[in-house]
Amino acid sequence: MIDAAEAQKVLEKAELFSGLSNDSIAAIAKLAKTKNYEEGDDVYKLGDAADAVFVVVSGRVRFSLGVGNRASTAQSIMEAGETFGWAALTGEAPRRVATASCLEDTTMLEISGSDLTGYFETDTASGYAVMRKLADRISRDLLSALTT
Amino acid sequence: MKVTVQSKSGIQEFSAETSDNLLYAGLKEGLSLPYECATGTCGTCRARVMEGDVSLAWNEAPGLAYVKRSKNEVLLCQAHTAGDCTLRVPAKVERMADGAPRPENFSGRIENVRRLTHDVMDFEVALDRPMSFHAGQFAAVTCQEVTGARAYSMVNHEDAPDRLKFVVKRKPGGGFSDWLFDRQVDGKPLKLFGPLGRATFRPEENKDFVCIAGGSGIAGMVSIATHAARIGYFDQHKGHVFFGVRTMEDCFYAAEFAEIARRASGNLEVTIALSNEDPPQDIHPEYPEIRLAGGFVHEVCSRAMAGRFGEIVGFVAGPPPMVDGALRMLIMEARLPADCIRYDKFG
Fold first, then answer.
1. Which residues of A fall within a CB distance of 8 Å from B199?
2. Chain B 197-226, CB below 8 Å of chain A: which residues?
3. Is B257 on the interface with A (CB under 8 A)?
4. What does DSSP say about strands B341-343 and B312-317: parallel, antiparallel, or unpaired?
5. ipTM of the complex
């Protein structure tokens, strides 16, 4: 179990939340739940409802597409400090278009997408900053997909 | 040699010969070891060596990017052992129920090589004995002249055929495809391990199906449509095939699909999507059973199938960007559940 202070430190180092004020980070940390997975566990599978964002605290998570485990065009391994599952912040009733599975025992912070977007409604400056980073990331992924 | 597997569902054992990699040895004995490509690319058959001496056949296998060598992790499809060993596999590993064709080693010779386009060819392999397989499955193919195995889907489908047909698209720098395209390969011996893959056509599901394929990914779709036509599946169900190529000159298997469509009495719709040129007309100039459309194949499918997806099974195969686009479309637009989307690694 990760306490609120430790969760705050993890979020401060996460690229998606970097640059937010201490108060904003503290508020987001309160929304986070600790999740522990064993090596080989799936965090989510292709087609699952995309309802949460994850920040890796320790361990490694691999992304793959399809019924099997082909690597996706997105960065395919996530390590400590990296954020994934951001489809939970987009659109209505989003679904997962990849499978995320743990390459080793992994601890993560799980933040409900609706809780987080709800918080951003009250802290629009932070919401704008995060959504800009998200737009940059989607743009990078698209570019990567077009050039590989 | 005795191989012990510690898995999430308990301990299993199988025996292995020195010549077999550990994945093939376990699959031959009916264990549900995790794998996808079975040729060193995807990294799915990752395992940790707990005891014993295990060596890798191909130290540069791309799938090794997903393992930690410092933790004694290996890819089972590249791993060989000269003695007893114990492995830990981070998945459930069980003995599979009898019924599904178990993969085995086969040998055969290349025959009937045909050049289909400037960079696509197909050929048959006359096997040393018949191989039963499900439509959509593949085999790992090796030749003496090129290091490593390649995964190719079977194009044909019959009950236990003694010939397999494969289609290969030439890849820049691809050792196996260079060998096929540059040499006189008729009569050359091949070794095969198969059948492999779970992205199969299952007639007992009783659902319509849609196939979205690019390039040589069409192989498994021909097999599926052939099987469906042979068993009268189109009497009750519809099939939709969307085949993406760049231009009309890159198109192949139009005659084969036209023949299957005729046997399907209007219940198999085949559309060729041209991504790099406008189609000269809406119907194929030689085969009126086949439609033509412009655009990326998943976009063409999305337009043509709008409002018609319903209870359907989707098969996808092709180059990675095409597969990504097709999967997103099937999940986000067609709203297919994940268990109705079939895909095996290709390319």
1. 67-68
2. 198-199
3. no
4. parallel
5. 0.71
Q: Which amino acid is residue B280, in one-letter code?
A: P
Looking at mean pLDDT, say which of A138-142, B13-17, B56-60 comes out highest. B13-17
Is A97's CB within 8 Å of B332's CB?
yes
The full set of domain ranges for chain A reads 4-147
* Torsion angle (degrees, nearest 10) of CA A59, A102, B102, B346: -100
According to DSSP, residue A49 is labeled: B
Q: What does pTM read for this prediction?
A: 0.87
| Dihedrals phi, psi of B214, to nearest 5 degrees | -125, 140
CB–CB of A47/A6 below 8 Å? no
Nearest to B108 by CA among B182, B187, B40: B187
Domains of chain B: 2-88 (3.10.20.30), 104-196 (2.40.30.10), 203-342 (3.40.50.80)
Tokens of B38: 């079975």
Which chain A residue's Cα is nearest to B45?
A: A69
In degrees, rounded to 5, the angle at the alpha carbon of residue B243 between the alpha carbons of residues B242 and B248 is 130
A62 vs B: CB within 8 A: yes
Minimal Cα–Cα distance from A27 to chain B, Å? 32
Superfamily of domain A4-147 in CATH is: Jelly Rolls (2.60.120.10)
Q: Which of B6, B324, B328, B346 to mutate to test the interface with A (most CBs of A within 10 A)?
A: B324
- Put simply, the chain A residues between 86 and 105 with a CB less than 8 A from any chain B CB are 94-97, 103-104
Model pLDDT for residues B62-117, shown as the tens digit of each residue: 888 888 889 999 999 999 998 999 999 999 999 987 677 899 999 999 999 999 99
- Residue B200: closest CA among B135, B103, B110: B135
Which tens digits make up the pLDDT trace of B241-252?
A: 999 999 999 999
